[in-house]
């Protein structure tokens, strides 16, 4: 899916983490709601969504949120 979404105007990137054999989380970042809507309405995304429900996922939860502030730290 990352190969598909990277070409959506307004896609800013994604992060993914998973525990060994356990649950995972993927966070996608979009410039605005219009960019997210374009991704959600993509034919390839809709097809993958249906396939995921049928074949890959037992369950999942989707959260749509706005990041108000973000900061980080990297020890050099």
- Alpha-beta classification: alpha+beta
Topology as H/E string? Answer: HEEHH
Q: What is the beta-strand fraction?
A: 15-25%
Domain unit count: 1
Question: What is the architecture at the second tier of CATH?
Answer: 2-Layer Sandwich
Low-confidence stretches: none
The largest sheet has its strands arranged as: 1-2
What is the radius of gyration computed over CA atoms, rounded to a whole number of angstroms?
Answer: 14 Å
CATH topology: Alpha-Beta Plaits
How would you sum up this structure, described in words?
The chain has 76 residues and is an alpha+beta fold. It has one domain: Alpha-Beta Plaits (2-Layer Sandwich), CATH 3.30.70.100. Helices cover 34% and strands 20% of the residues. The chain is built from 3 helices and 2 strands; from the N terminus they run H-E-E-H-H. The protein has helices spanning 2-5, 33-40, 43-56, and strands at residues 11-18, 24-30. It has a two-stranded antiparallel sheet. The longest helix is centred in the middle third of the chain and has 14 residues, at 43-56. The protein starts with a helix and ends in a 20-residue tail after the last helix. The mean pLDDT is 92. Residues 3-51 form the ABM domain. This is Heme-degrading monooxygenase HmoA. One of its GO terms (molecular function) is monooxygenase activity. Keywords: Monooxygenase, Oxidoreductase.
């Amino acid at each position: 899916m990352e190969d598909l979404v990277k070409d959506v105007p307004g896609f800013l990137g994604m992060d993914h983490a998973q525990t060994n054999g356990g649950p995972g989380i993927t966070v996608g970042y979009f410039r605005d709601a219009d960019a997210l809507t374009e991704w959600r309405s993509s034919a390839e995304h809709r097809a993958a969504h249906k396939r995921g429900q049928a074949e890959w996922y037992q369950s999942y939860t989707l959260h749509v949120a706005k990041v108000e502030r973000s900061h980080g730290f990297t020890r050099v």
